[in-house]
Amino acid sequence: VQLQASGGGLVQTGGSLRLSCAFSGRTFSNYIMAWFRQAPGKEREFVGSIFWRVAYADSVKGRFTISRDNAKNTIYLQMNSLKPEDTAIYYCAAHHRARDEYDLWGQGTQVTVSS
Prior knowledge:
Layout: E1 2-6, E2 9-12, E3 17-24, E4 31-38, E5 45-50, E6 54-56, E7 64-69, E8 74-79, E9 88-96, E10 104-105, E11 109-114
Parallel strand pairs: 2-11
Antiparallel strand pairs: 1-3, 3-8, 4-5, 4-9, 5-6, 7-8, 9-10, 9-11
């Protein structure tokens, strides 16, 4: 299985970015997909997930939107109203619906929000 994240970059406070994560190697529709992020000096944190429903961390609710396109085997993270504290490496992750923990990880994409 391969997860390929893309779409990161540098944006000003209040701006927007859309990240993509392409999934390959297994039946995409059987996998719960998620975004995590890790800021410098901090632990990795959950951003949101999507399967039958969508869940978000409180810190991004109302600003970020996760979606998935099963025809393209891809998930997206639309990030609006970005803040400097959103600066991090963003990772997509996955686990089979029969499992409980995320065991598949992409390589990460850098998001930097300037103040």
